[in-house]
């Protein structure tokens, strides 16, 4: 049985909500923090520059297969085709011939960024790799992400977006209760059919584990073209903010950038509690859902 959830999508670029004051020094090439409810920009640095996005791509895989009615309790076998699609990526823990529940494949993909999971999930939702890529681009179009272009399910070979559009994509994923729960889970045990194989997965979202800030969930990514990327949501004073950091030079840099922006917001950043300075046009988008890489 499929259910529907509604997402408010911001069309256009919000004027920065801050008008001065000391801003956090961000090392990532592009970054943005936006209010999850209004879409107002709280902080931005080259937020609309088009950049490679690496495995943060997998947010679009998750949204695409959910929109196709993925059976979360169904079982899907990892194939040689999945292995070929994942070639060149980080070490996988999903062995060819093993069968996993689709909910657990979502965990493998979103928590630990296993590159064999995207095409397996696509197949579980009735799509071959080309159809999955097409569905991911449909998701981007529905969310009005005009600078986002997907050519590869895993993000290993291509795929571009902007910090702002990746923040909006994450906001859409966090509006899905299943994806929100998975991206907010620090660790999980995944068991293959038959019970012989047990895999302990831990999230690559280090701030979620550190608990210094109230992190909701997010996704990391890395390729040589994209650098180190990080998109995440956080909660403070009853409101939520989504952030994206693209093309950091160091693995820890993106997390340090997040900490700087999060601390700045929590300490009363100029504009952090303001509404957008100009009106934004909103469109209601209805989506149907059913119940070398170094991340």
Give the number of DSSP strands: 13
**How many helices in DSSP terms?**
9
Low-confidence stretches: 1-20, 274-293
Give the N-to-C terminal Cα separation.
34 Å
What name goes with the CATH superfamily? Answer: DD-peptidase/beta-lactamase superfamily
Shape category: globular
CATH domain class name = Alpha Beta
* β-strand amount: 25-35%
Q: Which fold name corresponds to the CATH topology?
A: Beta-lactamase
Query: What does the radius of gyration come to?
Result: 18 Å
Structural class: alpha+beta
Structure report:
The protein has 9 helices and 13 strands. The chain has 295 residues and is an alpha+beta fold. The protein has one domain (2-290): DD-peptidase/beta-lactamase superfamily (Beta-lactamase). The strands form 5 sheets. A 5-stranded antiparallel sheet has the order 3-2-12-11-10, with helices on both faces. Strand 8 (187-191) and strand 9 (198-202) form a beta hairpin.
Secondary structure topology:
Elements: E1 2-11, E2 30-35, E3 41-45, E4 51-52, H1 58-67, E5 75-77, H2 80-85, E6 99-101, H3 102-111, H4 117-124, H5 129-142, E7 160-161, H6 163-174, H7 177-183, E8 187-191, E9 198-202, H8 206-210, E10 215-223, E11 227-236, E12 239-248, H9 253-266, E13 281-290
Antiparallel strand pairs: 1-13, 2-3, 2-12, 4-7, 5-6, 8-9, 10-11, 11-12
What is shown here, in short?
This protein is α+β, with helices and mostly antiparallel strands and 295 residues long.
Entry keywords:
295 residues; Beta-lactamase; two-stranded antiparallel ribbon; 27% strand; alpha+beta; 9 helices; disordered N terminus; disordered C terminus; globular
